[in-house]
Specification:
Layout: H1 3-12, H2 18-31, E1 40-41, H3 43-50, H4 54-66, E2 70-73, E3 79-82, H5 87-98, H6 105-123, H7 129-142, H8 149-168, H9 173-188, H10 190-197, H11 205-219, H12 223-255
Antiparallel strand pairs: 1-3, 2-3
Helix pairs in contact: 1-2, 2-4, 6-8, 6-9, 6-12, 7-8, 7-11, 8-9, 10-12, 11-12
């Protein structure tokens, strides 16, 4: 990272504390691909580059470590290294925050109903034959009754992966990330895991019909149809999940100790 570039960034964020200014400059270097995953940050060089002592520099590095942008290693060959920030890692950090809150299925579907139709429309111009083939292959995973609990779990994950494939073809990286994150939450949320593991039969035919219609509309590049089909599909999916959640709660109450 060039000294001039770092200095310019520091000027732009003068109102922030010195450690925050340094952290911002390093983040800008990562975003610009000047600093790359695995690259070591040498404190002495950074102190000279930013014309600061090691105290604010180390505060900045600690901030970046908490954010998951760097990792520190002790001992010989140790130091601060640029971390690879994958989508999975970013989602894990967000999940850790949200799982300490009162997150519900309704919370998740409030966003899914708004965003999944939009992400499907945004994918129309990019999805190709390989993408359509992936969607068809995923449907074959859950188009029949499961033989056992392991297959049941696999089917529920594949149902969410269908939407993950659609989102992966979006031309809006932020929209795709948020939709992938919502799908991840449905995989990891405790109440959802309990629902997926219950032996109650799941009506798949309606959801699958929505998905085949969606594929056809995307092939035809009919944005209006894609928007409407996915809107209806998400409403049906929410209703199904909330119905299963209610069944789970009723079973829990009936199996609980007598008062």
């Amino acid at each position: 990272m060039q000294t001039e570039r770092a200095g310019a960034v520091l000027q732009m964020v003068k109102s922030r504390s010195l450690p925050d200014q340094i952290a911002d400059a390093i983040v800008e270097g990562i975003a610009a691909d000047v600093l790359r995953p695995g690259q070591r940050l040498i404190e002495l060089d950074l102190a000279r580059q930013f014309a600061v002592s090691r105290v604010p520099l180390r505060e900045a590095l600690k901030t970046l470590e908490v954010q998951g942008l760097i990792r520190t290693k002790t001992g010989p060959g140790g130091g601060a290294f640029i971390e690879s920030m994958t989508e999975t890692r970013a989602m894990s950090l967000l999940s850790n925050y949200l799982f300490t809150r009162q997150l519900s299925i309704s919370n998740i579907y409030a966003l899914r109903k708004a965003l999944e139709p939009l992400v499907a429309v945004s994918a129309i111009g990019n999805i190709d034959a390989k993408g359509f083939e992936q969607l068809h292959q995923l449907i074959t995973v859950y188009d029949h009754e499961p033989a056992d609990e392991n297959e049941r779990w696999t089917q529920r994950m594949a149902e969410l992966d269908f939407h993950g494939v659609v989102a992966s073809y979006s031309d809006n990286v932020l929209l795709a990330f948020i939709c992938h994150f919502l799908q991840r939450l449905l995989k990891d949320l405790a109440v959802c895991k309990d629902i997926y593991q219950r032996p109650e039969p799941v009506e798949r035919s309606v959801g699958i019909d929505y998905q085949y219609r969606l594929i056809d509309a995307m092939r035809r590049r009919d944005a209006d149809a894609v928007l409407q089909i996915m809107t209806d599909h998400m409403q049906h999916a929410e209703d199904a999940m909330l119905g299963l959640e209610a069944t789970l709660e009723e079973r829990f109450l009936s199996d609980g100790p007598a008062s």
